[in-house]
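Lab manual, section 2.4: Encoding a predicted structure.

Procedure: take the sequence of the chain (251 residues), apply the prediction step described in section 2.3, and record the output as structure tokens. A sample record is shown.
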Amino acid sequence: MTTSMELDFKKLSGSVSRPVLQNATEYCQLVKALMFLVNSCLDICFEINTLSQHMVEPHHTHWIGVKNFSRYLCGTITHGLRYTTRDVRLLGYIDVDWAGSVVDQKRTSGCCFSLGSTSISQMSRKKKSMALSIIKVEYITANMASCEAVWLQKLFSELFGFTLDTTLILCDNQSRICLSENPIFHDCSKHIDIKYHYIQDMVHRGAIRLQNIGTDEQVADILTKPLGKVKFVTFRERLGFVEIPSYEGRV
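Recorded output:
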């Protein structure tokens, strides 16, 4: 397996015609065991998120997905996180797969932050609430990422005694950038809860800055949806998850 999940897995997993597993215990045990790998294998956050949603009533398709996922892990056993000292700055990516769930049409949000060459924080989460506006979804996700960025800034300040520069957060939606920078657009967003406007305050203080990026460069895509081989491998390397040379036989 060159990718951790097939492109059509979400479509197949939402089919009610698929047979239900007679004994779901083995499926649940395997998924729970795989959850411990998320901290060191940043490329599998979305897959674990998706597979764990079907632990109550897994179908045969989900079991096939777990087995394919296990084959992928066996093929990347020599991979790991590689940290370097060059370009030590906090950089974030955010992305949303709006109505991506084929079961209930709910969204999946993903964000990751890297310090230098490798990711240090990542999240892939299916939201419980429904949203009728893509602008609202994008804006809420940006607010969530800004909270994470400010927390990381404070954490590094307390641990190492230095202040990080303004955190750049890259996104592929211009609407959320406009809402965060210009309050005049808030007349069109009065349906958004006031707590989600925290990001505007952080932008005005200079703690974070949103910048537009092309969809093909959006690394957080790997946290929200299945990807093809080329994109998956490219974004996986951008997260810092690369093959580590063997030190066997070296002095």
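Check your result against the sample. The longest strand covers residues 118-126.
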